[in-house]
Every structure is written in C-alpha cells, then in structure tokens.
Prior knowledge:
The chain has helices at 6-9, 17-29, 36-51, 71-88, 101-113, 129-135, 140-153, 218-227, 240-255, 263-275, 284-298, 305-316, 320-334, 344-366, 378-395, 405-415, 420-423, 431-434, 465-486; strands spanning 14-16, 65-69, 160-163, 168-172, 178-180, 214-215, 427-429, 457-459. By secondary structure, the chain is mainly alpha-helical. Helix 9 (240-255) crosses helix 10 and helix 10 (263-275) runs antiparallel to helix 11. The model is unreliable at 435-440 and 442-451 (pLDDT under 50). Ligand 5A0 is lined by residues 140-141, 163, 166-168, 224, 227, 264-265, 268, 305, 308-309, 312. The ligand CC1(C)CN=C(N2CCN(c3ncnc4sc(CC(F)F)cc34)CC2)S1 is lined by residues 140-141, 163, 166-168, 224, 227, 264-265, 268, 305, 308-309, 312.
Amino acid sequence: xxxxxxxxKALFPLKNISSxxxxxxxxxxxxxxxxxxxxxxxxGAVENSLTCRSNVSIQVVEPKALPILELHTIxxxxxxxxxIMKGAIDVSKSENKACTRETIKKVxxxxxxxxxxxxxxxxxxxxxxxxxxTGRKLDCFGVAFAVVAGCQALGFSDVHLALSEDHAWVxxxxxxxxxxxxxxxGKGNEDKRGQEIGKGVSARSWLYxxxxxxxxxxxxxxxxxxxxxxPSLNATLDACEVACLQQELLWLLYDLGHxxxxxxxxxxxxxxxxxxxxxxxxxxxxxxQEAILSARTYYNNQHVxxxxxxxxxxxxxxxxxxxxxxWANASDVIRLYNYSRDDEExxxxxxxxxxxxxxxxxxxxxxxxxxxxxxxxxECFANLLRFYDGICQWEQGxxxxxxxxxxxxxxxxxxxxxxxxxxxxxxxxxxxxCGSLDERKLPRSNGNTSCxxxxxxxxxxxxxxxxxxxxxxxxxxxTKEEEVTNL
Length: 487
Ligand SMILES: CC1(C)CN=C(N2CCN(c3ncnc4sc(CC(F)F)cc34)CC2)S1
C-alpha cells in the first residue's frame, strides 16, 4: 500500500474538487494499491464539511470551491486509524500471509466495540472512516468497509469487500473463497459476525444474490466508498459540490475500468448524469443499459437493481411502455428467489412499483384517448402480466408470504384498464408448451428479456399454477365486469 505519500501531501490544503480528484487519481494510478483509509477519510471530511448541520447556510462561493481541508486534519485521523488497528491486533507473525477468520473477527470486534452505544443507524453520512474516527458512528456498509480498510492497514492484501444489493461482507484466504460476516443487517436481527455466508435458507434469499456478489478489488473498494458518498443536505436539498465530486470520481473510476463489474456504481453514475449531464459523455440511458449488461455478463442476471435503475429513469421521463419492460425484467430476476425476512428492501421496491408507480401511470394515461396509448399495446399488457407473475412466483416456495389483499386492488385496477381486444392479442402460453425456459427457479442462462416466443405468445413462469390462477381470476373478474357493462 502506498499510504499517505508526499506527492499527495503536497496537494494540501485542499481548496477545490479538482485537488480531491487529483489525490484519488494518484492513488488509483500508483503502482501500489490505493489506500482505503486515506481516501475514505478525505471523502468523509469533504462530505461532512459541506453537508452537516453547521453548513446549512448556503454560501455562494466560486464554483467547485470547498471549505479548506488542512493536511494535519487528515493526517491526524489517518494516524489515529492505524494506531487503533495496530494497537489492537498483533500482526508480527503474519507478515505476507493470508488473513485468518480469527483475525478478521478481531478487526470487526475492534470497530464494533468502539462504536457509540446507541445511535440512529440509518442516518446519512455514517458511511466513512471520517464518521468512525470523529463521531464513532458507522452504518452497516461503513462497518464492513472499515474492516477491509483495517485489514489493509494491517498488511493483509487478501481481504476484500463482497457486496450484494443490500448487504456487505468480506472474502479472504489464499483462494479468496473464504467468506465472513463482519457487520449487521436490517433491524432487530442478531448479527452473524465471524460466520460464513448464507449456508442455510438465506442462501436462496435475494439478500445474498444466490452467491453472485460483487467481489471487489482495491480499486472497486474505492468505487464502493465513492458510491457511498451522500450529497444530501436534507430530505430535499443536495450539496452540489459533493454531488459534483462524486460524479467526477465515478467518471475517473469508469475511465480506469473499475466500474465494469459493478452494476450499482454504474447506476449511481447514471442517476447523477440524469440530473446534471456531463458534456461529451454518454447519455444516462446508455449507463443504465451498461449496468444491466454488466449484471447479465458477470452476475448471471441475478441482480434486480439494474432494472429498477432503468425503470425509474423511464418512469421519470414518462417513457411508460419502456418502464413496464424494465420492471418486468426486474420481476424475472426476483422470481428465481425465495422471499425471506431479510429481503424487506427489495419487497418495498416491488411494492412501490406495483402500488404507487404503475397506478400513477394508469391514472395519467387513462385520461388521454390517443390511438398510440399504451392501453392499446399488447406488449404493455404482456409486460405487466410478466411483472405480476414474477412476484407471484417469488412467493411460491417461500416461507414468508409476499402478496396480500393490498396488492390485489391496484393489480385488478391496472389489468382492467386494457380492453378485451388488446388482452386477447396476448396468448398466455405455458412454458412447457412453448418449451423455451428451463428448470424451476434456476436462472435463465441467456438473460433473455423478452418472454414472447416466435408467434408473440406470452410465456408465463414454469411453475405458473398460482400466477395462472391469479391471472385467470383477474381475467374472469374483468370479463364479468365487461359483460355487465355491455348488458
Ligand atoms: C434503483 C435504486 C432504488 C436506486 N438506488 C439504488 N441503490 C442501491 C444501493 N446502492 C449501492 N450502490 C453502490 N454500492 C452498493 S453496496 C450496497 C449494499 C450495502 F450493504 F453495502 C448498496 C450499494 C446505491 C443506491 S437501487
């Protein structure tokens, strides 16, 4: 590890965004691995100086200027982190050796036991080592990151961050195949720190992404800390300098190739580009597509968020037909999993799409009678069915139910907006007949998004008993209503 070298120290005091980007660039392009503790302290210090309470007054200063960051501020915190780690763990006998589970547990304990007794864990700005060293507070991701940074400071180059879409753990050992929990997850769950990753029922839960996590290199760990930068000043305002710094750092990492296997980081860059497009860069829509391609290429299409990044973009830009396709593709991913109590985050995501976003779309488009309305398009109806069908299949075989009556009303309301002649153009073909898809609950190898076989038949899921029944029920209910109205 290069550590805090003179070339970087010479850039202090940091007065603007470019000098912060310069330090990250030096660290990423040096022939040593980038120093996670140094970069996390710097990013956290910049974020803190621009977003925390004391700065709620919006100063108008020259563009991209930052409150001055002195060298001693960063150096003192950096030395404090090294002192904490080296004071607690003796590594004299493990020079150039792979780390052990026991040592990882010790590093996790050092971080864990030095945190403030009780604090609001979901608050913003608790992700960096700056927060840990000055406020003794970290969020769930921050603890995992601190353990990896601690192991790096102790000289272990085999300990790396592993990331699912809602959890973080570490991989280590000669093979890099050993895994260990190092932080907590969710509310009121006993932490499993020190244990191997999901051997039990949790193995099939979305939380562990069917053991297809993003396993980071040192540079991807830098991408994770940059992704975790939070520009929020409060619920409605962002500190634009922090958002601008995050965006420039993500482009730096993107150009160096370190986002290629990190779909969520590409998605984060897409969100920033949608708000403030960078001249000369690809459009945000291309980034959302790249994130999807990365998830299909490297993670066997087992990640949901790339499709909800894209669906959210289409929704915000009133591209509703495209949004239905993205959400149906997201649903095709979740159908492979068994819903478990640890999957609340993705449950909330699907609930918002089904019960807020889709009903809103139905409301705003049903007022218009234009011929090219999505209500006239069978592929929109088919994608909506695929969306609902995936959620039904997600529930099947799961210990915890997903659907409840609150889901049915918006669902029926949506389906019934499509006329019978449009619905009739979508043939619901059982997979076995159309012979396209494979075994129950196993990922589609080709990441094929469309569910139509050659004669535009819509293929429902393999184990479609429930969803077929549900959709049959809806169909029959809607038809009955039509019969009544046509009387
Ligand atoms: C389409 C969305 C709702 C928009 N933002 C989404 N995010 C998903 C989570 N985000 C992330 N972005 C980069 N890396 C990571 S690693 C991780 C799990 C945590 F426990 F470590 C989460 C996450 C960023 C924001 S999904």
